UniProtKB/TrEMBL annotation:
PANTHER family (UniProt xref): PHOSPHOGLYCOLATE PHOSPHATASE
Native organism: Lentzea cavernae
Coiled coil: none
Stored InterPro entries: HAD-like_hydrolase_sf (IPR050155), HAD-like_sf (IPR036412), HAD_sf (IPR023214)
Name this polypeptide is given: Haloacid dehalogenase
Length: 225
């Protein structure tokens, strides 16, 4: 499972908690991007009454942002900027988006997260709904039981990633300070920078191929104490 070199952001303190992203981190982003783009285009037409041409133009702009700045592109932020509220977006994607259908069990991901869970609590933080998250985790092979706790859009409510408030919910409920918390995700601006602003650290990965290196790094920090 040879990935690229991971990018470490933070002070190197030993973690007492590790927060994982879901989309594009625990399964390849290619399984996510085109599906969610199609759903967003459909949402413009059905909920906003936009023409298909206008919807296609919006989707094309988001697709280009994903291509050129994946690390800083949040679909939740995009739909909010275009006048949809979070609850509306979550309800629509729950009804029309089924990423789990195209996924398969990933033994490497299951094994690597189990290794890390033996030495430090791990949690999941995603902007997905609980239903979508559960379906994805089941298909990948982790299940919700693969994490100490899971946090979804129902938990972060009006402060979804990249709002630091989503991470603050995790910190408060887990009782761990930001300074001893690490985040692992495929988008620096969305999955890592908000925690860093709170005083935490993170590792940027380019999908599941990099998880082994990230887990090895974190285990090394725990053992060095």
């Amino acid at each position: 499972m040879g990935g690229r070199m991971i990018d470490v952001l933070g002070d190197g303190s030993a973690p007492r908690l590790v927060v994982f992203d879901l989309d594009g981190t625990l399964y390849p982003k290619e399984a996510y991007a085109e599906q969610v783009l199609a759903v967003i285009g459909r949402m413009f037409v059905e909920l906003r009454g936009s023409s298909q041409a206008h919807a296609d133009e919006k989707v094309a702009g988001l697709r280009e942002a994903m291509r050129t700045n994946w690390s800083g592109t949040s679909t939740t932020s995009f739909v909010r900027a275009n006048g949809f509220d979070v609850a509306q977006w979550l309800e629509y994607r729950e009804a029309h988006l089924s990423i789990a259908d195209g996924l398969v069990r990933d033994e490497d991901v299951v094994r690597d997260l189990a290794r890390l869970r033996e030495v430090v609590p791990i949690v999941l933080l995603t902007n997905n709904t609980r239903g979508a998250m559960t379906a994805i985790l089941d298909k990948v092979g982790l299940g919700t039981g693969g994490f100490t706790q899971v946090f979804t859009s129902e938990d972060s409510r009006d402060t979804p990633k990249p709002d630091p408030g989503a991470f603050q919910v995790v910190l408060d409920r887990c009782g761990v300070p930001a300074e001893r918390t690490w985040s692992v995700g495929d988008r620096v601006d969305i999955d890592i920078a908000p925690l860093v602003r709170l005083g935490g650290s993170g590792i940027a990965v380019d999908g599941p191929a990099d998880l082994r290196a990230a887990v090895d790094h974190l285990i090394g920090l725990v053992r060095r104490g």
